[in-house]
Fold this protein.
Amino acid sequence: EVQLLESGGGLEQPGGSLRISCAASGFTFRSYAMSWVRQAPGKGLEWVSAISGRSTGTYYADSVKGRFTISRDNSKNTLYLQMNSLRAEDTALYYCAKGPYHDFWSIFYDWGQGTLVTVSS
Amino acid sequence: QSALTQPPSASGSPGQSVTISCTGTSSDIGAYNYVSWYQQHPGRAPKVIIYEVNKRPSGVPDRFSGSKSGNTASLTVSGLQAEDEADYYCSSYATSNRGVFGSGTQVTVL
């Protein structure tokens, strides 16, 4: 059974940094692209970033490009999102999601339960 | 990348059908057959119910079907059941390796 467990969320001030993680189990992690999708309170889903199985490709939404960095450690079955220069509009529940293949991410087959990031002074 | 356009709400009585539209552009829905649909119940993570326009993952009832014409994709839920009451989001792959979601549609079973 695929399991995705996000962690690392919390309260951070505007301009600050935070790194969130997603621990994966139940599948061969390195064989699948992974993504981060966020949902602001009471709002819709927004794709944030994606990474191929072997980290050869990384992709970002315009709203986070230059501020967020996605990475993965296949030896630890863990996905990361380093978030810098945080803004109030980054406040959201951040989900990690598993893609269908190692080099394609745009179908979000399995989801974690999310970690809440709040940016406020 | 602007969100795909969905109607805010849709409704139907049990047993009826409801169709949700998802309008994009020639850079996303119109360019690729990578349209997916997700169902989200309150307080829960989204669940994929349709991928690649009209394919259903195992375990998803065949009451759910998808289609696409030009820049618009559609999700039809036939034989509405109480448990179908949820938020539904479309998603598409877009040019320049981007992803885009729809604005979401709240489905109410009357």
Q: What stands out?
A: The longest strand of chain A covers residues 18-25.
